[in-house]
Every structure is written in C-alpha cells, then in structure tokens.
Amino acid sequence: MKPPYQPDPLGPDFSQLVLPQLPDYEGAVQAVLVRYLPTPAAPNVGAVLYVHGFNDYFFQREMAAQYAAHGYHFFALDLRKYGRALLPHQRPNNVRDLSEYDADLDAALAKIRAAGHSRLVLSGHSTGGLITARYAARHPASFVALVLNSPFLALNQPWLQRKLAAPLAGMLGRALPNLPLPAGLPDTYGQSLHQAYRGEWDYNLAWKPNHVFGVNAGWLGAILRGQRQVRRGLELPLPVLVLHTGRSAGGRQWREEFRRADIVLNVADIRRLGPHLGPHVTMQAIPDAVHDVFLSAPDVRAAAYATLFRWLAAQVG
C-alpha cells in the first residue's frame, strides 16, 4: 500500500496528496493538496492554506519557505480542474457555481486538522481570493485570519461589457453553461512572469499557459454571483488583509511598466470593494507590484512579505 502523500514536481521539499471528490457533470473529480515538508524555523504559530488564482496552480516555493521561516506549516491546494488536479476529460477551470470548490476546501482542511493544526490562516490569490473569502464567510470560526492577494472582486472590462454583455452572458450560463466565451486576457502577463520570456519564474506552461484557458458562460455566471455577494457585504468577523499593487496598466503590446503594475485587474475596484468583506479589513498597497504580488520583482515582494508577516504577527501572534 503506497503512502498517502506522494512526491511532488516542486522537488524533495514538497509532497502532494490527491483528494478524490464526487463526480460532477464532466465525470471524475479530484483536488490536490500540497505540503511543504521542512519544519518551520520559528516557533509554530499555526498553519496556512493557500489557494491559487485563475489560469494558475501552486508553484511558489519561495512562498512556502517564507511562511515556514515565520513559524507556519504551509499547505497549498490545487482546486479541481486546475494544475495537478486537472484530469484528461475535464475542461480547465470549468465550474458552474463557486460553491463547487467547497468540497475541495473541506477535504484539504480536514487533512490539515488531522495533522494536528488548529490555528489556520486561509489565503487566496485573485479568483482564489474570491473563492476563499466566500468560504471564510460561511466558516468564520475555522480561521484566525484571511490573507487576500489581489482578489478578483470585479471584472476588469469597459463599462458596456461590464454592465450589459457580461451579466447577459452570465444569465445565459444557467441554461447554456458550456457556451464558450473569450477570456479577454492578453498574454503579456504570462510573458512578464515566465523565465522563458521576460520574467524570472519557472513553472509548467501546460498548467499556467500564457494564452489563458478559455472560459464558458457557466464559469462567468459563477464569478458574477460571487462578486455580487461581495458587493452586498460578506460581514467577515475575522481579520482580513487585502494586498494589491499601487496601480493598474493596460494594453496588448508589451511595455516595461507591466513589470510593476497590475495588468489583470483594476486596482481601483479592489480598493473600492475590499472594505465590503467585513469590519476588520486592512487594505495594503504594495507599490510596483504585479497582479500576483508575490511574483513581483525581488525588492517588491520582499516588501510584500514584510508587510504580510508584520500584519500576521499583530493579528495572530
């Protein structure tokens, strides 16, 4: 009988655990929990579960090492139909309601608690930020803090698309969930990250391609319903940190400013909607960061980690 955790592509410091889930409208489903094996260098202050964004998966070795250096046991979750969890018969990122991810999070947290961790920090990036915020609102007693990295709280589209076309497509998603839609993201963000292009990071381009995976109307409807919940107010009772960059930029042709701006989301939306998460939200801009703050230039992400762990020390101890 093989041990439950298996070797992970990130190397000997990591292992992974497949979390089988009930089949859905595409068939068999799984999520994959990743753990960082080295013992935290500082006194144990708890554990963190990190959830990736859209067109994404967990590959940030540095993030795991940073949390361990500050006393946290580190875990990350590849959600169903992403990264390690993507099965051959599945369409990437294909969900019809964000609550479908609850089973993935439930299973991951059950394993983390079974390992003896009860003081838990939940963290999410971009779409993972929207997913984890909604989950924490339904399970507030499960976590001591929520950390969001450029959460996807609103569509970054022109007014007409945002107010008319997208809601119409989202409504169509109820009846025609597989109706394909353009994702609308340029490949310049991926170029700014991957070392094969203009960036410093090495990751699996089959799991995080520069030309992002397509989306369908069911996915868009799920996102819009989740974002409406945020606009109405989630009333999270726990402390929440919202990290974001100082400014956004746009355009499909490469510009050097893309290395120090969010070219995926509108930072003004994050600033406007972040306070809707609850009464204990700390909004923190990280100047010159990219969309994924912890994939920014070395000096910028060093500042982001310093901000994160000062905040956690004040809120969690």
UniProtKB/TrEMBL annotation:
Q: Does the keyword Hydrolase apply?
A: yes
- Supply the Pfam families for this chain: Hydrolase_4
Does the keyword section mention Secreted?
no
Leader peptide range in chain numbering: none
GO MF entries: hydrolase activity
Instruction: Cite the InterPro entries for this sequence.
Output: AB_hydrolase_fold, Hydrolase_4, MAG_DAG_Lipase
Its domain of life? Bacteria
- Locate the Serine aminopeptidase S33 domain: which residues? 45-246
Q: Which UniProt keywords apply?
A: Hydrolase
Output this protein's name: Alpha/beta hydrolase
Q: Where does this protein come from, organism-wise?
A: Hymenobacter lapidiphilus
